[in-house]
C-alpha cells in the first residue's frame, strides 16, 4: 500500500523549510550508497504516532521580485495539486495576508484537493491569535496556528492532515492492474513514450476517474492485459513547461514512484546516465520498487556491434546499486522495442511478488553456507539457523542467527547472490532483516 503524499506550498520565507525540518527531524531515511537520498531535503518519509506519509517541500528557489514570486507559487501549487493527497498551505502571521496568498488559495480551492491552512510563526498564541483569524478570508477553511521554529501546534496540524488521508478500506479495493511509473529528467522522452505506448497499440484509452489522483493516470491495454500508467496528466499536457526545474522533476519522480509497482527509469541515450538520473533511480531503489532501465533515443546514436555492450557496461557502472534491473534500448520516436516494455513489466511484477517456500529457501542457504563459511569475530562464528520470506514487493527475508553483530554486509550480499542464482528475482530489489534467536 502506498503512503499518502503531503505537499507544502507557500511564499518564500513563511517557514516551509523550518516546518519540513521540524517534521522530518532525524527521521529522514538515509540510505548509504544511494545517490540523491542523503543530500536533498525535497522529500522525507514521516512517521508520526501510527501514521506514515511522504512529505514534499515544493519550495526551494528564492525569487527576488513579486511577479516572480507569484509565478513560482502558481507552479508550486500546480505540482502539489497534481501529485499530493493533502496540501499544506503555509502562511505567515507576521507578514499577514498578502495578495499572492489569496491568488494561490483560489487555485487550491478550485482544485478540490484537501488543503490544510497553516499560519506559521505564531510563537505566542495569546498575542497572535487575533491576527490568525484574518486568514479565514482565504476561504480555504480554518487556519491552524503553528510555530514551526518552536514546534508549537504541530500535533494539531498533523491530526488535521491525517483526517484527509485515504481510508484503509478504500485502498484495499482489489486492483490487479500493474501500476507503472515512467520517470526521468525533463526531455528524456517520457511523454513520447506514453504517446507511443498509447498510439502503437490502438487501444481504448480511459482516464479512470475515481479518486482525484486516479484522474491523472492512464489505462493502457496491451494484448488483453491492462496496465495503469501513473501521473501521465502532466506528461500528456501539451503546453507543459519544457525546462522543468530539477526540483519539480524529483518531486514528480518521488510521488509517481510511491504509487507504482514498477518504475521505468528512462535515460537519454545521447547523454548517458547523468547525476540526476542516478538520483531518480536511487529513489526507486530505496523504495523497493520493481525496476526497468530504459535507454531511450536509441535511434539517435551511432552504433556498431559493440555499442550495446559498451553502453550496458557504462549504465551498470553508474547504477551499480541496481544490478538486478534489466536494461532495454528503445526509441519512442521510431517505436523500436517499445512494446517489449509490457513483457518486461509482467516479468518484473511476477518476480517482485514471487514467494519462495521456506524449505527450498533453507536448502539454498545451507548449501551457500557450506560453500563459503560465515564470518567470525574474536573466535565467535556466525551461525545461520533459518531463513524465511516474510513479504513481497519487494521480496523480504528474515534471517535468524546467533549474533547479529557477526553478520557482515558482504555476507548478506553473498547470500542474496546465491538466492538470485536460484530464483532470479530480475527487476526487483531484495530486502534482508537479520534477527537473533537465542
Ligand atoms: P521558506 O523560505 O518558506 O522555506 O522559509 P524558512 O523556513 O527558510 O524560514 C524563513 C525565516 O522564518 C527564517 O529566518 C526562519 O528562522 C523564520 N521562521 C520559520 N518558522 C518560524 C516560526 O515559527 N517563528 C518565527 N519567529 N520565525 C520562524
Ligand atoms: P519528456 O520531457 O521526458 O516528456 O520528453 P518528451 O517526450 O517531451 O521528449 C523531449 C524531446 O525528445 C522531444 O523533442 C522528442 O521529440 C524527443 N524524443 C523523444 N523520444 C525520442 C527518441 O526516441 N528519439 C529521438 N531521436 N528523439 C526523441
UniProtKB/TrEMBL annotation:
Residue sites binding GTP 2 per the record: 184-191, 231-235, 296-299
Annotated InterPro entries: AAA+_ATPase, G_ENGA, GTP-bd, GTPase_Der, KH_dom-like, KH_dom-like_a/b, P-loop_NTPase, Small_GTP-bd
Domain of life of the organism encoding this protein: Bacteria
Domain EngA-type G per the UniProt entry, residue ranges: 4-169, 178-353
Keyword Phosphoprotein: no
Assembly with partners or alone: Associates with the 50S ribosomal subunit.
Binding site for GTP 1: 10-17, 57-61, 120-123
Protein name: GTPase Der
Lineage: Bacteria, Bacillati, Bacillota, Clostridia, Lachnospirales
CDD domains referenced in this protein's UniProt entry, alphabetically: EngA1, EngA2
